[in-house]
Each structure stands twice: as structure tokens, then as C-alpha cells.
Amino acid sequence: MKKFKHAINLLVILSLLLLAACSGGDTTSTDSPENSGDDAKASAGTMFLGMVNPPTGFNPINSGDVAAVFLQKFMFDSFLEMDGPLNFVPKLAESFETTDNQTFTIKLNKNAKWSDGTPVTTADVEFTLNLVANPVVETAVGAYISTFEGLDSSGKLPEGETSIPSVKVIDEQTIEFKTSKPVDPNMIKEQLGVKLLVLPKHILGEVDPAQLSQHPFMQKPTVTNGPFKFVQYAKDQYVEFEANSDYYLGTPELSKLFVKIMPAANMVAQLQTGELHMNVAGGIGKIIPTDYETVDSLENVTTVIEPTIGYQTMMFNTETIKDVKVRQAIAYALDRQKIVDNLLKGYGEVIDGPYTSLSPYLNKDVEQYTYNQEKAKALLEEAGWDFNQTIQLVVPTGNKVREQSADLITQDLQAIGLKVEMTTYDFPTIMQKGEAGEFDLLLIGFTFTLDPEISALYDSKGTYNFMNFSNERVDELLTLGKAEPDADVRQQIYNELQDIHHAELPYISLYSDHDYAAISNDVVFGAPKIFGFHHDLQKWAVSGAK
Amino acid sequence: MFQYIIRRLLIAIPVLIGVTIFSFFIVNLAPGNPVDMQVNPFATEADKEIRKEALGLNDPIYVQYLRWVQNLVKGDFGYSFSTYEPVGEMIAKRIGPTLILMGASLIVAYLIAIPIGILSATRQYSWIDYLTTTVSFLGISIPNFFLGLGAIYVFAVIFQVLPTGGMNTLGGNGGFGDTFKHLILPALVLGTASAGNMVRYVRSSMLEVLGQDYLRTARAKGLREFIVTNKHALKNALIPIITVIGLDIPLLIGGAVVTEQIFQWPGLGQLTIQSIGSRDYPTLMAINFMAAIVVLSSNLIADLLYSVADPRIKYN
Fold first, then answer.
1. B172 band by pLDDT with thresholds 50, 70 and 90
2. Alpha carbons A249 and A240: distance in angstroms, whole number
């Protein structure tokens, strides 16, 4: 008995020590734990946003990912902002005009300046455009300027040259550039106007273009021209911004802004505890649909749901599934509405092709492939499909809904008698499998622009044409569409394109999921938006101390 | 002793070279490459090609390896392929948080495991013994992510006494107390998981020692049972446990990958996951290299501690 007592004593002492250690920490901490949730609220003028994907960096011309571009736009202003479908409002550019759809004139806001006081001038714009076109510069935005006169189809200058002949600086505020053929101004405005960010020539002018990516500025931008200044990036943790009090469109209301990076599951917890003011939605900060109900029931947040232009597709390898009838049969076999209803909790839409209901270029006359198993079976019989053949369905990991949809798709295909083998890989592997054509069916998602130009996916030489789909008329239409200035004629072109794809079916779109954002009631101004998220950032505000 | 250390260090060199060659080729053999991760639809094929060339990915793999070794010898880990940050800097920033988390969870693990292990051994086949063995078995079986999410839900969401993640309160003053508060949950989660394992080591080691003759002598001399157990027996029972510490450190790094992810703890584990996802070869190589050094040196330290704890063991 004595032994037992001693052991208990020891245990009690040790656990007391442990407890003391824990509570000791609490009492010495600068703010008591009960306040941790209030911290966010207490410091008026500080906002916390939550996102899931970490950015690859802050190099405005060499960032492949949506997350990086999203973060850069807090610090760097684009020429224009699109605050609604194809509705452009001025930002860094006072005006962005063309009279002949071929020569474009950008007039910069004369008050615009870098955060070190240097004015933003056309020299910076020219410098940036030349860098993007320079064949030794690492960049990810070549396509923005691929229509420029004097550049090849990937937007590059001939080897050895360093300045684009068709770009002309008129004065400090006015710059002109010319495309090789007349184009739809909306396409240029959406790509170059809304997405291209200007680099400071007075900081980077002397840097060897080939070494630009490694320059410290690309990790820690020292001067910016947007509403916020860069403070620090704790890798994969958060990005800290502070207000640029000299911002040419007005001093921001917020003094600090943090964008926190975290797994989607943690976002719900942090919204609930008040550690987050909102999730950024938009494909990089989504709340998972299984948490929607939880978020809806939270009293301290309101939710916003909006349709998007992003969508998920299932690509057919047209080399291994040659017969159109088989592809059609597979399309008919899918109960896509079930995916939207069950996996997206109804917050999404079934689409055919690359345009969602938000797009003005969606061809509404194309009839959808509606769920019809009888038709699917009949088509397979007609095509003489060998039912012993196994179909390889390749699925990328990372998007929970997409992974789950693959299970439903497999079930649907098995229901019409197909043998399906599903394999999942991480994203880099998917890209390689895609390029090598090592799949029969491949799930993948895209977010292009509102502009209908999608050569990257459709063109027989397109970067993402893993389908190996090649059709002369399609290539021809894409070239025509890219170079057509008249929106009505473009509509005709893209209508025909959608018709061909509907018939040939190189891929079937599955669904487009709506953005689901939760915003704290403490937010006075500002909310995640599909269009123009970064518009009026200087007006964003949170309510003050309690 | 000194000679022994030197000999061990010399053996470590070929082992390290072997590890780097092996991991470099494995890492590069994985399908996909950093340029494929350039998922901006506005990146043209020409853009990708320029990047590939700039990163040296067009060179044969042995050239890439030799270049890496050459830089390593100069103390340069290279640039991250996905973010272009110097890898050395990136890793230096991560080591501190990882060491803090590992240290804290080791302390938690031992604070739990040693008393419970002793209790369990001294009361062998009693209900306490059965209870602790069952609980520690549960501790081993429950995955860290489950425990972690549960802990977040209870302590951060329901009671709101602890933060959900991160290492400091953003926009706050930081400081020791603040970090400590953020450390509690991840350290407890990681610590209790390894404690489960540890209890069983302590118990069996203790059981073995308790049956020894010298303890009977000690008791016969009239020493109190408390002294017998906690001084004479424990000291000897700890020897094999020291080795377990050495073996536990690499395990802790592995466990930390998951725990760091859940609690957004800015350590090496989180960096590893991100680097694998983006096929960031230089960062992965640097992490592998460091992990190899940690394993080798923790084994060496364990062996040395062994001789400190048990004078019968001599390295000559």
C-alpha cells in the first residue's frame, strides 16, 4: 500500500508541475487567453483574411499561381479593374483607349507614385512590357502581350532584342502600343489592363534581366504603388501589409492587413473565434461544402454566394477513346446534377463547355448532355464498345469535391457496364500524365478570363490540350476569335466553336462551383467578390475597439 | 571515447554522400517537375521553356547533382525552384520553430511517460497497469490529425482559451507568453502521441530492473520503497530509454509534419509538405540532407549518453 501511495504522490507532484508550467505561461503572457479572439476586433483598422493556397512569391511578371497574383494586387495596381462582367473602371490608368482596335493608348493617373515618392510613369510601363517580351526573362504572363506587333505568338521578341518596336512612349503619362491585327478591346483590357502589374524601373532598371527572378525585390517588394505596402511574408503562414498613406486614390482606412494561409478546415474555426474577418473565396480560399451548414449557423458572420467563371472538366484522351459515340455515351452516363446537389450542397451549376452562365459568350442554344443511361448504353452498343476494356480515370488530389466527384463518376460509368479504374495523383504528376497522354479520362479544373479566348485549352498546340484534340476548323476559329475586334462577330465565332465541341466532345465539363464566402459582422466595408476584389481597397474598414 | 567519436564522424561522411545521391535521384525521378506547376493559363510554352532552362532542368541529372554538391560544399543550398528564395534562409527560419515544438513535445512525452511507466511497472497486473497499457495503446493508435482537430475544437472553438494555430498572435506584441500559448496544443498533441509509445518502454525496462538482485539487497538493507524505485531502479531503467530518445527524434520530425500542418506551426514539417507539392528539388534536398544529419547525430548522441548513464559501457 505504501508503495502505491508513493507512486501516487509522485504522479500528483509531476502533474502539478506540468499544470504549473502551463498556467505559468498564461499568466506571463502579454494578453490573457480570453482576449485572443478579441485581438482581431480590438485593434481597429486591422483586418485578417483567410486563404488556403500559399503564394509562390511576389514577382508580378513571373507568378504562375492565382494565390500570388491575388496577393500582389494589394500592393501593385493594375491599369484597370473589372468591377462587373466586362465593366472596366480606371485604376493606375486614367484612360485605356483605342480608336481603331489596333493602336491602344494608356494614360496614367498623374498622381500615381511609388511608395518611395517616385512617380509611376510610362518609363515603368515600357520597362515592364520589354521585360515580359525579353526571351531571357522568366515570366508567366507572356500571353498578355502575344498580340503585340513585332512579337511572336508566345509574346517574345526575337533572340537578342530587348525592346518592343510597337510600344511608343509619348510622354511621362501617355504610352501607346500596337497589336499586329485589330482585336477586341475587351480582351486586351481584361488581360493587359486588369492583370499586368507594373514594375519599378528606378529599382530594377539595372538588374540583369536573366537574374530578375532571384532579385530580393521579388521576395520582399520594397516599393509598391498600390493601397498597401509589403511588411513581411512568413512563408506559408501569413502575409502582412500596412497602409500606403500616400496612396494616390486616398489613404486606406485599414492600417494593417493580414492574409493568413491555412488549411480550409481551420478557416471555419477561425471565422468562429473571430481570428478571421473573411475567407477570400475565389478558388484559393474556399470553405469546403461540408462546412457550409456550420458556417451558415455562425452568428458572427454573414455569407455571400456568387457564381464563378471557374469550372471542372473531364478530359477524354481522344487517342484512346477515338469514337465520338463512346465519348458521348460517357457524357450521357454522368449524373452531374447529383454532384452539384450532393457534393456542392446545391451551390453550383452543371455546364457544358468552357463558359459558365456568367459568360456573355455562352452559347445557350447548345443542348446539354443530360443524364440518360439508356441512351448511353445504346450509344456504346452502336459504337461496338468492348466491355472488357478498362478505362483509366485519373484524378488529382487536393480538391476534396473533385476527389469525391470521381467516385460518383466511377459509379455512373460502371452502371452502364464500363470497367473503370480510378487512380489519384498529386498535381505535378497529373500535369505529366496529362502531357504524356497517360489516361483515358482526366479530371482537371480551369479558371480562364471572362474573355472567351481559350487557345491554351482548345488549340491543337494548346498548353493544356491533353486531349490531343486536333481540328483544323477549331484552330482556324480560335485564330479568328483572337483577332476579331467586333464583339458580335466574335459571338458567332465562339458559338460555332461550342457547336463543334458539343459534337466532337474532346472533354465534358462537369460543374462550376459557386464562391462561398463568410464575412464577419465587424467588417464595415469590403467583401470577397468575383469581379474587382481589389477595387476600392482603400475604403475597406473594420469596426473599432470594444 | 574521443577516437570513437572521430571514427563515427568519419563513417558518417560516406553515409551522407550515399543519402544525397539516393535522395537526389529519387526526388528527381518523381513524376512532374517544378515548371509544370506553372498553372497560369497565360504562361506560354515559350515561358515554360525559358524557366526550365534557367532552373537548369534541361541538363542531365548527374550534372544537376554535381552542381548541387558543388554549391553545398560552398555552403550554398541554392534557390527554391518555386519561390526563388535562398533555401538556406528558408530552412534557417524553420529550424527554430521545429526545435521548440520538438523539445516541448519531448518534455511533455517524458513528463507523462516516466511516472506512468513506473506506476504501471510497480503495480504490474493491477487495474492501474491494465488501464495505463490500454490508454497508451489508444495514444499510439489515435492519429495526430484527429487528436489535433479535436483539441482545436475543444480548446479553441468551444472554450476559446487557446489560439487555433500559428506561432504568434498576428499584430500582437509577440513575446514568450504569446508563443507559449500557441505552443501548448501542438506540443500536447505531439507529446501525448509519443508518450503512448514511451510508457511501454519505461514499463518494460522498469519491470526488468525491478526483478534484479541488487534491488532486493537494497530493500533488505531497509531502504524505503520510494527510494528503491525512484532512485536505484529508475536510474538503471533509464539506460535503454536514452536510446529510445535518439530513435524518437526522427519519429518526432515525421509526426511534426502532420501536427505542424494542422496547427500552422511554421516548422520544417510544413515546409516539407509544400516543397513536395511543388516539386521544389533544392528545398527537398536540403531538408533530406538535414534530416540525414539529424538521424546520424542523434544516434551518436544516444550512444554517447549510454556510456554516461552506464559506466560499464566504454567506447574504446
1. confident
2. 21
Chain A 81-110, CB below 8 Å of chain B: which residues?
Answer: none
CB contact under 8 A, B32 and A269: no
User: DSSP H helical segments within B30-126, as ranges?
Assistant: 45-54, 61-73, 87-122
Handedness of CA A212, A214, A217, A218 (dihedral sign): positive
- How confident is residue A163, by pLDDT bands cut at 50, 70 and 90? very high
Residue in chain A nearest B116 by alpha carbon: A11
Q: In angstroms, what CA-CA distances link B313 with A282, B6, B35, B212? A: 63, 18, 54, 19
- The answer to whether B37 contacts A427, with C-beta atoms less than 8 Å apart, is yes
What DSSP designation does A386 have?
-
d(CA A351, CA A34): 47
Mean pLDDT of A52-67: 87
Partner residue opposite B177 with nearest CB, options A30, A258, A275: A30
* Residues 6+ positions from B173 with CB-CB distance below 8 Å: A30
Environment class of residue A342 by beta-carbon count within 10 Å: exposed (0-12), middle (13-18) or buried (19+)? middle
Choose the closest CB to A30 out of B178, B266, B279: B178
Output the pLDDT for position B193.
Answer: 82
Return the exposure string of A45-78: e unless at least 16 CB atoms fall within 10 Å of the residue's CB, then b. bbbbbbbbbbbbbbbbbbbbbbbbbbbbbbbbbb
Q: What is the DSSP letter of B35?
A: G
| Grid cell locating B28 | 528527381
For residue A350, which of A126, A543, A512, A131 has the smallest C-alpha distance?
A: A512
The C-alpha atoms of residue B29 and residue B21 are separated, in whole angstroms, by 12
Return the H-helix or E-strand segment holding A509: strand A507-513
Q: What per-residue string of b and e applies to A113-124 under the rule 16 or more CB within 10 Å gives b?
A: bbbeeebbbbbb
Gap between the Cα atoms of B255 and B250, Å rounded: 9
Cβ–Cβ contact B51 with A under 8 A: yes
pLDDT in tens, B113-133: 888 888 888 888 889 899 988
Do residues A33 and A250 make contact, with C-beta atoms less than 8 angstroms apart?
no
Question: What's the gap in Å between the CA of A385 and the closest CA on chain B?
Answer: 32
| Inter-axis angle of helices B176-210 and B87-122, nearest 10 | 40
Q: Virtual CA dihedral for B253, B258, B261, B266, nearest 10 degrees?
A: -10
E strand residue ranges, A227-356: 228-234, 238-243, 256-261, 278-279, 301-306, 311-316, 348-349
